[in-house]
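Homework help thread (please don't just give me the answer)

Our assignment gives two proteins as sequence + structure token strings and asks us to describe the second one. The first is just a warm-up. Here they are:
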Amino acid sequence: MKTPSFAFLLVLAAAALCLCTLSRPALADGKPLSIEQLRTLVTEMTQSRKTDDEVATALMRVTLAERLESELVDTLAPLLPGPLAKEQLELLESASAALPQAAALQPALPPLEAAAQTDLLAKAKAYLARTASNTPRIAAVKSIKRYQNGGKLAATYSGGGLSDAGTSTSQGSSPYIKLIDSDTAWAVLADAAELPATEVDTTHWGSNGKVNPTLPPLFANTLFQEASQNGGLHFVRWETVRTRHLAVFAFALNKKQSHYGINYCCFPVSNSTGSPTGGTATFQSESDWKPFKTSAPYHGEIFIDSETGAIRRTVSVADLKKFDYVHTESILIDYGLTVVGQNSVMVPSDSILDANITPNGESFAGGYSNRHMLITASYSAYKPAH
């Protein structure tokens, strides 16, 4: 019998590797998972009797290519071995909220023709005029949960850069995200948009690794106006959200057309108390810290109910520079109607802010910390504002 050549054996090995790769869901190695691959991953880990910690660790490494729907979370959660894995599954739901819905779940409806797009956008404009424009000031209870990776932030600088307990990108940092705090406060809204807080929290977050966004996002009324006037608003697909068929319109605005503001507090100024190339500097005075402020071009999507013209969801994504202290920011907001006094008012119900930041302000350095942050908020108990 002829001995197989070395080249032939290499071909067989490559084929086997290819089949193995196709049969296993890819983790966060540059290959995001589909929803079906995630389902397969959870099923295989369950059948293998993986521990809660093992499953949580695997799910923390997952990046999704499609939106994880709450219905699938409800289906998969009972299969998971414990609370750690369930928390990571819920985080995947939040982190994927701004992604497109899986194609298999999108309604099988024909694309909107140009005339139908014009009609639906006119219906949405009228809906906003009735329910959002010139509406009275109202208040709501805003419940906030904050998730992020990384540990306690060191407040000292050395020649090698500010260190960040396990999160420095130069050290192969952990990407794992966990709940770090929660809070409840009153929010005031007018014209279906949250107003800036009267007292801005300027706490120096260096001691605990938090960097605080201080501006509310662009809400539906302003966003729709900007997108309609300058953003090239156009139909891209249908989606089903909470049983409603929604027409998804995409847009993009350059910096001159945009009112998208970024303001995060606060970052250490590394060269204010010492040289960034030698010695050690500590951050103790007001002048050692500064906010990061900029205006940004942005793109996004608006989800419109095909029957009523109601705007049910908006997604906005800031187009930031790689060397900015805030590397990425995307914001999803869901909307509904509530009655306040005698008025039927459009209001936000939930929001998710997803950002990557450099909490040390060291974007220019060879090794810097990069923190992934999720802030979820829900609004309730609406009433007239005093």
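The one we have to describe:
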Amino acid sequence: MTQNTSDTALPRILIVGGGAGGLELATRLGRRLGKRKRARITLVDANMTHIWKPLLHEVAAGSLNSTEDELNYVAQAKWNHFHFQLGAMRGLDRERRLIKLGAILDDLGQELIPERELGYDYLVLAVGSTTNDFNTPGAAEHCLFLDTRAQAERFHRLLLNQYMKAQARGEQSVSERINVAIIGAGATGVELAAELHHAARLLQAYGLDRIRPEDLHINLIEASPRVLPALPERISTPVTETLKSLGVYLHTGAAVKEVTAEHLLLANGECIPASLKVWAAGIRAPAFLTELGLETNRINQLAVYSTLQSTLDKRIFAFGDCAACPAGEAGTFVPPRAQAAHQQASLLAKNLGRVLEGKDLLTYQYRDYGSLISLASFSAVGNLMGNLTGSVMLEGKLARLFYISLYRMHQMALYGVPRTLLLMLSDRIGRSTEPRLKLH
């Protein structure tokens, strides 16, 4: 039922971070509370558009055109009864219940929007994580990262520039070589390696044949003894075999000691030449979280209870990669995975409604529904876990189908079923009328 309460007098729920979790939460709350005038929901993000972070490796390889899969925050807010503010959080005043947003500059460096303050009654931090280079010498200067769409697009431009440069040199007797190094053989690193090999084949098919697929030397470096160290070995083994069959060079059991402009130096003394270097190992939460007066851990994550409330302020919640949430066993924490952020967004949507009603909060329990790894068009491997099925191993086309369904589930949470079905139809039509690889 719609109430006549003035919008300015409503409880203010402020969500900082428009990643998968933050955007899903804002959408759910907008539909449940904003539409009924029970609360004023505001989402804050430093960008105008959203793209699902697990897709960034496809943006980097060029197999996904980010402009076609992005979601505009302003439009999403209009459709789902919440508000959007552009900006990056720079500080917190807990006594006055205000967050501080930094100034926004235009492309020429001129101030477009000055510093601002936004008030809240309940604050939710969902600012995600960034790659952790562990302060490795030279990593920040010489490596690319895949934390944002802009970074992924930059990698794609640099890769494409090397192909264009080689093609412009004309016919030569010897084809040219590109050395790519990917540090970290977790899901992002493994999937990027496969996507790059797939991209190399497509680039040759489109006539950029001065660099053959076998001349794109992809090195995957992992400090642990095997690829996908966080996942079961029954998943890691077939993935390793597929990567080797694609010609990916695996370097396991040796950490990166130093990064230079042209090489990687490993702890075992090995030197790997690389003109393109991507760091995809480890995560840490944004550093500004340590300056808010809240409890954080060694990788900047905010300490929260199982209700997702911060340990020092019950009006402040945090979830997703930026939160250290207790798991089932003592001393363990919820892993930084997309499925965890999705589950926590669902719980937090209920808890914020319960807060407004004066009810006790529900506690979060992590449920592992399995893992799926996509190896471009070559294969997919994973396992699904459930109460009825136990653990089911998947491989090949069926695993690929389930992998794609994860993104469709994310779209359904944001758009609803009818619009998601239309998007699926549009994607299918687009594949028959557009290049299969972004060539610019």
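TA reply:
I won't write it for you, but here's a hint about the kind of observation we're looking for: The radius of gyration is 23 Å.
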